[in-house]
Amino acid sequence: MNGWLVHERRTPICLLADASVSSPQAKTVAVGCGDIGMFITHHSQGRYIVNDLRGKELVMRHMANPDPEVQKQALLCVQKLMLTKEKLEFLGGSS
After folding, report:
1. Candidates 3.20.20.60, 1.25.10.10, 3.30.360.10, 2.40.50.140; correct CATH number of 2-91?
2. Per-residue pLDDT tens for 37-50?
3. pTM (2 d.p.)
4. What are the percentages of helix, strand and coil residues in the chain, rounded to 5?
């Protein structure tokens, strides 16, 4: 959470993702996890930026959220962090 804010790469997507994933509302958290996953997929260095900013730990905490949509989006985001882009395209999960 705060790790996103103190890192030298204070990009708007990182600040927005931190705010949304830290929200008390389940729908906002689900959207934030989905946004981080899209950032990983579409930014050439997205996976490394999210890992550097400790985003994996932040998202993995939400895999145990009681809301099923939050769990789903967190799991999809972590999947995008763990798999290479080629493997995601093979599985059909790049979008």
Report:
1. 1.25.10.10
2. 888 888 888 888 88
3. 0.74
4. 75, 0, 25
